Structures are given as structure tokens and as C-alpha cells.
């Protein structure tokens, strides 16, 4: 495969795919010449403010409630270093490297727009660290999602001045020797640059972008596992017909119904009970799948719109404008991204909840239409999928707890100067967990639905659902005596995560729809 070209950072911003490419796949980025010129011009304006003793927040004054404290010109650089050191106050577990890489890249993206007064050398080092695989160690707690992701971004900034800790191919280590091994030299901060490095919502946005990428796959996989369960439970595909869906013209609902219809096309299992079946309708968890999955699709589409706007936004305070004005503003407030992180957590929780309900029906002999108890051919001595369902319920319940909004919570800080915060970082952190839980919930449904389809033999599933069963059976055995189940479930999770299942299914039926 041809090596991907480096991503260009300029005033145009970046795409969601760019964020994923840098954060997860090591794609490099570079500062465009036009951005280099714009940044240098902005930095020169800051130098002029210092030389003229012009009162500018965070440049010639203190921060937060100390904004009224004047800083002499000779101490403005010291001010920036002190800011970074004092604000690198994170605690708790370390943040995942892919999130930190996204933060570092997105902060560089915002600085490259030339409204922050930072020199090009700052972005050069950020991008060089990404290229060298040097990732600052960031702690989980410390951001309130207003005045930016202050503590997390300060840990990133600390690495730029050769302090703090980084990962550079092994365990966490001091930054200075890791930079030296890579041939990189720490920067010496000038006026405004410390503040510019930490006054962004890049952590929230980075986690939102990664979650949106994952949900784009998981929503298609949710339609797949639902279709497999319809087959396993001898459900009907008639409820998904396009003319019925058109009576309620919700875009996501129609897309999900089309996906499920395509996945079930040609199913001998579905065809086997079209005639002579006394049931007049399926349970909600089957029949209403497009309505729930579709609502999640619409929510993701809205969140993508918000993320796309943020990815072309200049986030800082104060802003250095091309005409020489310097203005304080509130662009660092994380409400736009915090809200959609919470919206997505709600949608993700509901995707898990309905998948759990579908799974439960396959395990209950009173509702599974002929399947053995807990999908075990020898139930009694064997418990089959009983406790796999317990595990699935535990994760679905956790997602319900995590669906409680964080962005409705606020406490004042900085002696009441910063008296309303977004709590968006917390919203993004819990979104990451709900997305991981959803993948595991769908993995349990995949294993159970595949077993149910096997138990309907010799009837054959549809091409799409059959492709998923085939991929799973290469690694996970079908119904039989009880065995250590955890490895099977974790293998199914991996097959969903690495694209094996989705690739096989879409090779059989074509690309599934996602908004």
C-alpha cells in the first residue's frame, strides 16, 4: 500500500478521519507554509503587546481571578512556564495514548490557524512528537471543560518544555531523555504560548471524534446482530418493509430498516414460517429495532455536524485577530461538544438495552419458539449462555448509569471568575466507556444469535447473516457442552473491533448504510 501523505495543518482545519488517522494509525502531519506565515504574524503582534506594556489577559496579566495582576515584560515568559507547571495538576489513571495523540494533534490544528499568538516552532514540535511516537502522560482528572481541558493539555504542554513524563515505546519515562533520543529539542515558551497550549477543548473533541468513528461501525453491526436474532427467533422481516417505514419519515429509521432487510434477504429461515405461523407480530425488541437504531443514527449524524464545525474552529482565549485586536471570548467553553457526548451516551445506552432484550428472548424457552433453554442442547447439566447474558446485562446497566448527563453539572472555580463550566471532559470520558460496553454487548448477541441460527439447521441463514456466522465459527465453536466461555466472548468482541465481521458481511451484501 502507498504511504499516506502527511496531513497539512492550515486555516482550513481538519476532518474527523484525519483525527483518527493520527491518533490511531500514526499518520503524520505538517504545518503548511501559509499557516507558518500566519502564525509568525500573530506571534509578532503578541511581542508588540509585551513591548508596549499593553494590558492583555494572560500575556501581561495573570490568569483567572488574577487577571487584574499586571506582569512586567521581563517576566512574561516566566509566567507561561509557571502556568504550564501549575496547571499540570492531573490525578487518577492515565488517559489512553490514542486520546492524548488526538489532543496533541487538535491543539496543533487550532494553533496553526494563527489566532493564538504562538510561533510555528510550537506546532513543529507537537507534530514531531507525534511522528516520533512520543506521547505525553496525561492523568484522567483535571478538566472541567471550560477554559479548555486545562490540566490534560497542561500535561501535553509540559512535555514540550522537556518536563513531565511521556511514553516513547515503553513504560512512562522523563520527557527530556525521550526527546533527546528522538533528536528533538524542547521549546522555550514566550508570551502567550503557555496559555495558547492549554486553552482548548481538544481532549473532549478528540474523544468525540474517536467515538463517532467507532459508532459508525457499531451501528451497522447492531443492525447485523439484530437481523441474526430475527432469524434465530423465527421473526418476520415484514415490519421492516420500506412502505411501512415511509409512513414515519425518520431518516435514520429508514436506513436501519433497509440494512436489516438487506441482511435478511434470501433467508431460508425467515421464509420457512411465512405461511402457517399463528403469530401476528414480533415483540418490540425485534419489531422496533429500526426505530431505536434509527434514532441513534440520527443522533450520530447531529454529533458529526457539531464535530465538523469544531474541527474548523479556532479555540483559545484571548484571540489575536489579524487587524491587531486582542479580545477575550468564550470559545474555550465545551458546551457544544459536551452536549453531544451526552446525547451519544444516551443513544449508545439504548442500543445496548435493546440488544440485551433481543438476547434474553433467545435464552428463554418460553419465548424462543423452539430453541433449547439458554441455547444449550443438553440444558440442566449445562448452563449454556445463561451467564453470558448476566455479563451482557451488567454492561447494559452500566451504560444506563453512564447515560446520565454530565454536561448538566457545573461548579464554579477560580474564585468565581470561571463560574460556569461545561463538564464536557467527563461527558467524553463516559462516552468512551459506553462505546466499549456497546461493542461487548453486541459481541454477546452475536455469539448467542449465531448459536440460535445453528440450532435452526438445516435451514440456512441469509447471505449477510451467514457471512457473520462463518467468520465467528472460524474462531468460536457452535452449540455444545459447556466450556470456558470468557475467551469466546472476548474473541467475538475482537472480531467486531478489528473489522473482520463487518468486512465479511459487507463483502456479501454490499456496504451497509450509516448517516
Helix-strand layout with pairing:
Layout: E1 7-9, H1 16-25, E2 29-31, H2 33-51, H3 76-87, E3 91-94, H4 97-111, H5 120-132, E4 135-136, E5 139-141, H6 150-160, E6 165-167, E7 173-174, H7 175-181, H8 193-198, H9 202-232, H10 242-246, H11 251-264, H12 268-271, H13 284-287, H14 289-310, E8 319-320, E9 326-327, H15 335-363, H16 386-402, H17 424-455, H18 463-473, H19 486-497, H20 500-509
Parallel strand pairs: 1-2
Antiparallel strand pairs: 3-5, 4-6, 6-7, 8-9
Helix pairs in contact: 1-4, 1-9, 3-6, 4-5, 4-9, 9-11, 9-14, 9-15, 9-17, 11-14, 14-15, 15-16, 15-17, 16-17, 17-19, 18-20
* Element-by-element helix/strand order: EHEHHEHHEEHEEHHHHHHHHEEHHHHHH
For the secondary structure, the number of strands is 9
For the sheet with most strands, the description reads: 3 strands, antiparallel
Residue stretches low in confidence (pLDDT < 50, at least 5 long) are none
Task: Work out the helix count.
Answer: 20
* Multimerization status: single chain
Q: What's the structural domain tally? A: 2
Strand content: under 5%
> Termini separation (Å)?
28 Å
Task: Specify the helix fraction band.
Answer: 55-70%
Radius of gyration: 26 Å
CATH topology of the largest domain: Fumarase C, Chain A, domain 2
CATH class of the largest domain: Mainly Alpha
Superfamily (CATH H level) name of the largest domain: Fumarase/aspartase (Central domain)
Provide mean pLDDT, rounded.
Answer: 95
Structural class: mainly alpha
CATH architecture assignment name of the largest domain: Up-down Bundle
Shape: elongated
Arrangement of strands in the largest sheet: 4-6-7
Amino acid at each position: 500500500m502507498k504511504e499516506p501523505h502527511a496531513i497539512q495543518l492550515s486555516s482550513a482545519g481538519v476532518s474527523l478521519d484525519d483525527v483518527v488517522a493520527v491518533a490511531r494509525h500514526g499518520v503524520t502531519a505538517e504545518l503548511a507554509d501559509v499557516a507558518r506565515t500566519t502564525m509568525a504574524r500573530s506571534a509578532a503582534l503578541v511581542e508588540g503587546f509585551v513591548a508596549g506594556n499593553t494590558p492583555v489577559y494572560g500575556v501581561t496579566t495573570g490568569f483567572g481571578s488574577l487577571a487584574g495582576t499586571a506582569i512586567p515584560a521581563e517576566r512574561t515568559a516566566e509566567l507561561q512556564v509557571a502556568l504550564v507547571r501549575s496547571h499540570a495538576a492531573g490525578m487518577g489513571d492515565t488517559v489512553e495514548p490514542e486520546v492524548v495523540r488526538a489532543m496533541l494533534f487538535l491543539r496543533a490544528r487550532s494553533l496553526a490557524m494563527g489566532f493564538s499568538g504562538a510561533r510555528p516552532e510550537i506546532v513543529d514540535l507537537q507534530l514531531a512528537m507525534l511522528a516520533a511516537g512520543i506521547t505525553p502522560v496525561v492523568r484522567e482528572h483535571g478538566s472541567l471543560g471550560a477554559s479548555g481541558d486545562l490540566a490534560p493539555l497542561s500535561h501535553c504542554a509540559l512535555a514540550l518544555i522537556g518536563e513531565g513524563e511521556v511514553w516513547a515505546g515503553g513504560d512512562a519515562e522523563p520527557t527530556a531523555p525521550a526527546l533527546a533520543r528522538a533528536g528533538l529539542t524542547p521549546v522555550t515558551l514566550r508570551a502567550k504560548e503557555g496559555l495558547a497550549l492549554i486553552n482548548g477543548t481538544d481532549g473532549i473533541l478528540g474523544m468525540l471524534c474517536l467515538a463517532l468513528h467507532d459508532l459508525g461501525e457499531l451501528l451497522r453491526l447492531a443492525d447485523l446482530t439484530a437481523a441474526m436474532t430475527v432469524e434465530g427467533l423465527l421473526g418476520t422481516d415484514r415490519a421492516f418493509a420500506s412502505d411501512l417505514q415511509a409512513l414515519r419519515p425518520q431518516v435514520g429509521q429508514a436506513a436501519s430498516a433497509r440494512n436489516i432487510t438487506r441482511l435478511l434477504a434470501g433467508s431460508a429461515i425467515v421464509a420457512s414460517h411465512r405461511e402457517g405461523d399463528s403469530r401476528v407480530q414480533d415483540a418490540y425488541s425485534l419489531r422496533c429495532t429500526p426505530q431505536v437504531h434509527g434514532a441513534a443514527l440520527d443522533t450520530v449524524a447531529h454529533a458529526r455536524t457539531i464535530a465538523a464545525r469544531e474541527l474548523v474552529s479556532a479555540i483559545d482565549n484571548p484571540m489575536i485577530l489579524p487587524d491587531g485586536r486582542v479580545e477575550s471570548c468564550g470559545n474555550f467553553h465545551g458546551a457544544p461538544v459536551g452536549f453531544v457526548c451526552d446525547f451519544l451516551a444516551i443513544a449508545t445506552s439504548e442500543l445496548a438495552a435493546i440488544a440485551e432484550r433481543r438476547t434474553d428472548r433467545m435464552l428463554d424457552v418460553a419465548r424462543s419458539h423452539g430453541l433449547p433453554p439458554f441455547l444449550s442442547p443438553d440444558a440442566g447439566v449445562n448452563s449454556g449462555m445463561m451467564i453470558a447474558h448476566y455479563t451482557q446485562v451488567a454492561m447494559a446497566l452500566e451504560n444506563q448509569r453512564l447515560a446520565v448527563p454530565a454536561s448538566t453539572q457545573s461548579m464554579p472555580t477560580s474564585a468565581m471568575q470561571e463560574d460556569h463550566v461545561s463538564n464536557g471532559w467527563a461527558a467524553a470520558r463516559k462516552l468512551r466507556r459506553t462505546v466499549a460496553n456497546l461493542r461487548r454487548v453486541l459481541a454477546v448477541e452475536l455469539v448467542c444469535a449465531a448459536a440460535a441460527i445453528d440450532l435452526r439447521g438445516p435451514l440456512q441463514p441469509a447471505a449477510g447473516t451467514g457471512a457473520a456466522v462463518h467468520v465467528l465459527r472460524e474462531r468460536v465453536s457452535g452449540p455444545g457442552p459447556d466450556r470456558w466461555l470468557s475467551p469466546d466472548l472476548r474473541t467475538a468482541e475482537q472480531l467486531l473491533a478489528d473489522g473482520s465481521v463487518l468486512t465479511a458481511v459487507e463483502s456479501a451484501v454490499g456496504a451497509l448504510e450509516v448517516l
